[in-house]
Amino acid sequence: MRNLFKKAVAVVAAVGAVTVGGASIASAATADTVTVPDVTGYSAPAAVQVLENAGFTNVVVSGPYAHDTDTTVTRTSLAASTTAVETQPITVFVNPW
């Protein structure tokens, strides 16, 4: 009886994983892709605005000075000119961090 219960739990977990994974794949297939703009040299707030205007919905700035206009963007987690799904997280790295 105990083994039967374990098997049942394993089957339910597997079906749940396939269902969730399938939903993620379907969601990714229907999401729009956008080109990553080059924001190197921008201030952090300006870079966030440009990336959001391009269509990205999950932009994060690294470091404690994320909203400081004196920061300078050194790079992003996604390379400029590449394409990515609009919901993919993109991190903006700034100097002094």
Automatic annotation (TrEMBL):
Q: List keywords of the entry alphabetically.
A: Signal
Residue intervals of the PASTA domain: 30-96
Matching entries from Pfam families are given as: PASTA
Name it: PASTA domain-containing protein
Q: Which SMART domains match?
A: PASTA
- Give the InterPro entries listed for this entry: PASTA_dom
The secretion signal range is 1-28
Q: Which domain of life is it from?
A: Bacteria
CDD domains, from UniProt? PASTA_pknB (cd06577)
Report whether Flavoprotein shows up as a keyword of the record: no
> What PROSITE patterns does the annotation carry?
PASTA
